[in-house]
Sequence to fold (784 residues):
Amino acid sequence: MRPLTATLAPLAAAALLAACATGPTGPDARTATIQRTANGVPHISAPDPETLAYAMAYAYAQDNVCMTADQLVTVRGERARWFGGATPGLLARRMFPNEQIDLFIAAHMDDAALERAWAGASVESQAMARGTVAGYNRYLADQAGKLPAACNSQPWVKPMTLAEFRRQGELTAVQAATAALADAVLGARPPAPTAATSSTAPERVDLADAAEAMREAGLLDSPLGSNAWAFGKDTTANGSGLLLGNPHFPWAGVNRFWQVHLTIPGNLDVMGVGIGSFPGVTIGFNKDVAWSHTVSTGKRFTLHELTLVPGNPTSYLIDGKPEKMTSRTVSVPVRAADGSQQTKSATLWSTRWGPVVVLPRAGLNWTASTAYALKDANLGNVRATDAALGFARARNVQDVREAMKNIGTPWVNTLAADRNGNTLYADVSVVPDVDAAQLQRCAPSRPAAALLPAAGLVVLDGSKSACDWRRDPASPVPGLIPIGRMPTAIRTDWVHNSNDGFFYTHPAQKWSGISPLVGDASVTRPRTRAGLLEIPDMLARGKATPQAVQAQLFADRNFMGHVTMPDLLAACTANPPASAEARDGCAALRGWDRTSSLDARGAHLFREFWRTARLIPGVYRVPFDPAQPVATPAGLKMDDPAIAAKVWESLTQAVKNVRTAGFALDATLGSVQRPLITSEPIPLHGGDEFEGVLNNLGNQFNPGITPKGLLIDYGTSYVQTVTFDARGPVAQGILTYGQSTNPASPHATDQLWLFSRKQWPVLPFHPEDVEKARVGEVLRLTRP
Fold:
């Protein structure tokens, strides 16, 4: 594996050596300063990368030490030991019993392989990894016995090791593949001997249920989403670039963002947000360029259909020759209900392609004749830190594109704007190098092939070595698509992405020759349609400014409400429903302004109605037309009695749900929609994914209405607008949930109130502005 391009590693190493050669000496050589400004945002300056990461980890622990300690329990594989085997925990994007999490960690993590991968990272990245570990451990030592109540004096709070740091990065990288299918890995068992004499004909698969299973795993229509808009000099009022970043990430767990400003004088100066223990800025800006990410449609793994050796279900054929699977048994400690410790074990089976998996709802079972293995493209991906450093030092969007050549961004698009008025869209993420011809040439059995269009699963014929991923010499990582065959565009008008494919970057942007594993022309996100409508609408009123972009996002326009309500309300009048509840629903929705703003009356009723009505087969009056991705699908087919009956059933049930929860049908959304992460009654504006509200809020772990309202723990997380003037960046941003996961912190919910009030704080970047905005004393932190 070559984790870096030929240019990035020498440049990073040279930058580090230059910084060390010209930096301070004596006591200041290893000393960082941490200044906090409004809302607890730290501005960290250090003489070298290792000290910078040291101070960043220390400051992050000040805000989130218990969350980090909990995540370290996860990557150690000790959740069941401390918290009980049946207790649910978070693994990547899904909730699993702790026992399953620990067994998966024990099976998946290969510390020796990760150490080898990290040996290929730049000198600078390795230094930052060491600094992160030492900075966190310094905080634990400084605050022993004085940690927040959630983890103070707990036996599971231990210092971090470098191996555990690497494991955290690995878990982030594979969360869109192997980790999402942890139960499929653990559930793979050879068939019983009796299976050899039974029928091996594949069972009929419910493709709709297979798709739903992938949604539940977060692998189809992923709950992680985002919007990003970048405007160039042709469309901005000041002739410079302008970026809106609006990632939609969880409000709880290690995927939470954290604001930070990082400086190595004369070497690096970048501000934005990072995630967990990642030692850098993932979304942000410097003096010349701003960028954001959106989860892309690219595939991160392939499944391989194995033809098993007759009579030997643990051997498979490759080019007609048998190969034996390998097996490994792992064991983990599990705390029983009485507090005693037990040991649970699992045996995992692997092939040349990767671990054997079973996905029964997709019809992918281990039988006497067939099995399936998973090959994860992000396995051992340690390149993200170097890519982020390239972004941090970029002088323009061309430099941002250059920084992605190492194929280090694991599962996201990148959009950027620079001071010269150029914009960039790029899906240069980790995607297996499989083209359309290979999909045909390596097609599996017919039922398995049907899973790609139905459930997004790529299954290849695993009996042929020629069906492995292509190894293009142009790719720095064998088997991954190189940047030259990934979709990238630099424009001077605008680009956008809302998690559908690259086809909809801009109406005038054309593409060809891109692998279908990167994306296709489907539109599954109503937010894509909303963006393609709202951007031209905004520009028709005048050239783009930060204020105009902010107002557009927080107008909370409910796209699907605009699309469906005219037909629904017309039917309410022309052919009133028989149900009294549905008639009451009609009355309430007549007063709805078709937004998801705080004072919108009936928005919650529409959400509950559309949650189920959208799934009615044939519900749209005008079906989807790829030639009209904004205008279609549209309307409701209320002239069809059977469909109309189902629509009224959905409205009836929605009314019952709202009333059962204790809310009036015409209540304001702000009185219904509240955050799950705090008991504070903070009213929230925004709408769910399926409504097409750009300001997306979802109830990821608690679907539906509860007696406390629509409880939100996912969605708009860090939102920023950045443009440039003669001095540098002009930035405003909100970290919706605040910097700290400690309920006692003043920064636990302070920015939630700003978000609720639609107030965008200015982000101080220049040293004199930071000094003026500083709150509290400067912390000087010396690395041993």
Summary: Residues 133 and 161 are 6 Å apart (CA to CA). The first helix runs from residue 8 to 22. The first strand starts at residue 31 and ends at 37.
